[in-house]
């Protein structure tokens, strides 16, 4: 989960794709001209190579500066989501570590849960992502029920409900933990 | 968590982020331009070029047929990859479970395991004889019977259906149960 | 640790202030004082305090309540005990203090 806007990601990919296509088209000008000539069409000339040198150099430098700034801005602002704080208000802050400890405690006796990890994100508002790793073939409805109870108890002990996303997954750890055979 | 936040987060969790692809794409576009800009600055101040003057770089690429085709091919390939990434749904193999308190996202692998478990109990076979493959809107449960013991397909389907109704995944999915013709000698 | 100023007023060292305030907050949070950390900042000539501590899970007392009590306690009793003017107290709860485990250790 990252902070970047997903519609914007899509738009950026489309724009980059179109720029790449345009670049390819420029390089393949002779071939494209050949194709279009019989149809009586002529490709427009850009006059790039005929431009005076200082104008061209200035253009390249400005374009490159813009591209590097956009790339830098994008890379540094994305994925900034995780910070360790679960709750912060009126001078009181609660670390995600505390909430993780509480959840782990309440899920301690669930044998099909191999591991619980909690991370705090702020995509827009603060969100806590609890990753719950279960063993293969676990009773999902039972796990869901246990997680819900653990969260309710945590809410009560903490004194406020937190915006929580529970992700039930089979991680590497739970694959290594051997399955308890009941038959 | 209000309904809008929940929907937004649900979509986020069930779809791949494209931000890494965008970052790579932006840098792939920016670095050659940055190189050209360095050459342009060197030319402006009258210093010797690192490799060639900007216009000569363009000339080198467009001059030789092989180089021109190679670069154009690479650009087309990049364009196709970028556009496919932009338009493909980017769905992750996950479903959302109904819950009032929080958002619950479950990997399809876990969902498949749960259906296998329910089906195995209904069919009275060991769990390793049931396999389930889960897609976005469908689940197919395959059961290998114990030789000499018939399995009631409808009963297994009912069990799988009950499990689905209990979990109520979003997007909703339909189950089909297949009983293999070849059995296994029971222990 | 304690030095007298020319006017005869007692001024505690910052280390002593930190220990005192840490102990106040830890008591409210139900965790051992030695596990708490205190940072003092200047706030226009007065003290701004940040206490970092774990919290015990106790029946009938939420962690948020305990943290708020710790905050009030530092603001109310801190000046009385240390003589320092305290403007703000920030409480950061870093984790669960396991009561059973710490009893076993002792």
Give a nutshell description of this structure.
Chain B has 187 residues and is α+β, with helices and mostly antiparallel strands. Chain B has six helices and six strands, in the order ααααββαββαββ.
Task: Explain what the structure shows.
- Chain A: Keywords: Membrane, Transmembrane, Transmembrane helix.
- The complex is a heterotrimer of chains A (183), B (187) and C (106).
- With 183 residues, chain A is α+β, with helices and mostly antiparallel strands.
- Chain A folds into two domains: 6-77, no CATH class; 85-176, GMP Synthetase, Chain A, domain 3, CATH 3.30.300.
- Chain A has six helices and five strands, in the order αααββαββαβα.
- The relative contact order of chain A is 0.11.
- Chain B is α+β, with helices and mostly antiparallel strands and 187 residues long.
- Chain B is elongated.
- The longest helix of chain B has 27 residues, at 19-45.
- Chain B folds into two domains: 17-87, no CATH class; 94-179.
- A three-stranded antiparallel sheet of chain B has the order 2-1-5. In chain B, strands 3-4-6 form a three-stranded mixed sheet, with helices on one face.
- Chain B contains six helices and six strands.
- In chain B, α3 crosses α4 (65-87) and α5 (108-123) packs antiparallel against α6.
- Helix content of chain B is 55%, strand content 15%.
- With 106 residues, chain C is an alpha+beta fold.
- Helix content of chain C is 41%, strand content 34%.
- Chain C contains three helices and five strands; from the N terminus they run ββαββαβα.
- Chain C has helices spanning 14-29, 63-82, 99-105; strands at residues 2-4, 10-12, 37-43, 46-56, 86-97.
- The radius of gyration of chain C is 15 Å and the shape is elongated.
- Chains in contact: A-B, A-C.
């Amino acid at each position: 989960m990252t902070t970047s806007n997903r519609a914007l990601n899509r738009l950026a990919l489309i724009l980059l794709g179109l720029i790449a296509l345009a670049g390819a088209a420029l390089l393949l000008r002779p071939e494209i001209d050949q194709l279009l000539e019989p149809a009586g069409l002529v490709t427009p000339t850009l006059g790039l190579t005929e431009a005076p040198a200082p104008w061209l150099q200035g253009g390249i430098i400005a374009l490159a500066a813009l591209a590097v700034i956009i790339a830098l801005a994008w890379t540094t602002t994305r994925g900034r989501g995780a910070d360790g704080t679960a709750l912060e208000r009126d001078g009181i802050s609660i670390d995600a570590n505390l909430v993780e400890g509480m959840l782990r405690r309440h899920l301690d006796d669930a044998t099909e849960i191999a591991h619980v990890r909690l991370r705090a994100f702020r995509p827009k508002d603060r969100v806590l992502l609890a990753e719950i790793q279960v063993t293969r073939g676990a009773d999902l409805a039972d796990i869901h029920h246990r997680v819900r109870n653990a969260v309710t108890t945590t809410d009560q002990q903490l004194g406020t409900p937190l915006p929580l996303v529970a992700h039930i997954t089979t991680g590497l750890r739970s694959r290594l933990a051997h399955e308890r055979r009941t038959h | 968590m209000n309904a809008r936040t929940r929907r937004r987060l649900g979509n986020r969790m069930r779809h791949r982020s494209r931000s890494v692809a965008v970052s790579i794409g932006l840098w792939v576009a920016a670095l050659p331009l940055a190189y050209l800009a360095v050459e342009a600055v060197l030319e402006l101040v009258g210093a010797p070029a690192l490799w060639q003057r900007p216009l000569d770089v363009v000339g080198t690429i467009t001059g030789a047929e092989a180089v021109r085709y190679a670069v154009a091919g690479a650009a087309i390939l990049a364009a196709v990859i970028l556009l496919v990434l932009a338009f493909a749904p980017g769905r992750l193999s996950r479903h959302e479970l109904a819950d009032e308190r929080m958002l619950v996202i479950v990997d399809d692998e876990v969902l498949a395991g749960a259906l296998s478990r329910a089906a195995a109990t209904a069919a009275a076979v060991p769990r390793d004889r049931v396999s389930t493959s889960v897609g976005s809107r469908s689940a197919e449960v395959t059961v290998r019977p114990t030789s000499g013991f018939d399995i009631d397909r409808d009963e297994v389907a009912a069990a799988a259906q009950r499990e689905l109704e209990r979990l109520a995944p979003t997007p909703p999915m339909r189950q089909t149960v297949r009983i293999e013709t070849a059995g296994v000698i029971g222990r | 640790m304690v030095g007298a100023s020319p006017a005869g007023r007692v001024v505690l060292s910052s280390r002593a202030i930190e220990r005192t305030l840490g102990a106040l907050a830890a008591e409210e949070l139900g965790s051992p004082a030695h596990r708490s950390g205190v940072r003092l900042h200047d706030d226009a000539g007065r003290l701004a305090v940040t206490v970092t501590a774990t919290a015990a899970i106790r029946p009938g007392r939420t962690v948020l309540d305990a943290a708020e009590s710790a905050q009030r306690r530092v603001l109310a009793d801190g000046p009385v005990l240390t003589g320092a003017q305290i403007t703000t107290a920030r409480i950061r709860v870093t984790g669960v203090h396991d009561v059973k485990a710490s009893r076993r250790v002792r």
